[in-house]
Design a protein that fits this description.
mainly beta, Neuraminidase, 27 strands, globular
């Protein structure tokens, strides 16, 4: 892996842009930052709270899941999120103009009768809508039970589609857009859902729980974070504890494990020629790294890489 830049404050939500830069969030700093190929950094927008997952929408703007913030501890050279902060500002979906830095709140908790505690990761479909997870918040003796939502980019629809889940985190679509993948953090389980229509899940898959198909879980004490999907349909899940990326085939089998040196490896995206450059956020140590990937990434809707 090659270092792109460091000194970031818990980076997440990387998006590889057509011009070769990477736009990401710094959760602890509450901002959106653009990283150039030479490693230089520019703060694009100040959001406050805890900007988390991010994706380009049909209007070319950046849609950000804001989890409302974390409390942090610094230990052994790592910046570690730790529970709900005293200044928790509420979960929301924000839209950022990357040219001007203007920020607007698209959805907030209570809109359309939905409770948003800690929106986390996001992916757009080809119908102009987006799926996102709500990871919830953890307090001293309790943790939120949350789910997966679907919304339209024009602000006209927000609904909870999958409930309940245990701290859903990473979310992604298969290359054909017909399957939704969701990773739970603390259970370290990857689930698959067949999509019946935009914003609709085929619930006939299962008799128990939210109707998904159990897809994969590793052994040992480890957690899943955010994810990306490559062009072969493999689900590439950032894996905390084991420190790396678990690559899961469309059949639900481990293809490979790509190790890193940061226990808080949180996300992956693809860019560069043929989408064969993987950008990985090493959040505990504040780094963005890149590496050659043996397969090209799946092309994201509305992002012309």
């Amino acid at each position: 892996m090659d270092l792109v830049t460091d000194g970031l404050r818990f980076p997440e939500g990387p998006v590889a842009m057509p011009d070769g830069s990477v736009v990401l969030v710094e959760i602890e700093r509450g901002c959106v930052t653009r990283v150039q190929p030479d490693g230089s950094q520019t703060v694009v927008a100040e959001l406050g709270g805890g900007p988390n997952g991010a994706a380009i929408g049909p209007d070319g703007k950046l849609y950000v899941c804001n989890n409302g913030g974390f409390h942090y501890v610094e230990r052994a050279g790592l910046l570690i999120p730790h529970g709900e902060p005293d200044d928790y500002s509420g979960g929301r979906i924000e839209r950022v103009d990357l040219d001007t830095g203007a920020v607007e709140t698209l959805y907030k908790s209570g809109d359309f009768g939905c409770t948003l505690r800690g929106p986390n990761d996001i992916v757009f479909d080809d119908a102009g809508g987006f799926w996102f997870t709500d990871h919830g918040k953890t307090r001293r003796r309790e943790r939120d039970v949350t789910g997966v939502f679907y919304a339209r980019a024009d602000g006209s629809l927000l609904k909870e589609v999958i409930f309940p889940m245990e701290n859903p985190n990473g979310i992604g679509l298969s290359p054909d857009g017909k399957r939704l993948y969701v990773a739970e953090t603390y259970t370290c389980k990857l689930w698959a859902y067949d999509i019946a229509a935009p914003g609709e899940i085929a619930f006939s898959q299962g008799l128990l729980g939210p109707g998904g198909t159990f897809f994969y879980s590793p052994s040992g004490y480890t957690f899943f974070d955010s994810l990306g999907v490559d062009g072969a349909g493999n689900v590439c899940v950032a894996t905390i504890g084991q420190s790396g990326i678990s690559v899961i085939s469309p059949a639900g089998e481990l293809v490979e494990f790509v190790a890193t040196d940061d226990p808080f490896t949180t996300n992956i995206c693809f860019g560069g020629p043929d989408l064969k450059t993987a950008y990985i956020t090493l959040s505990g140590t504040g780094r963005l790294v890149k590496m050659d990937w043996p397969r090209g990434g799946a092309k994201l809707n509305y992002l012309n890489t």
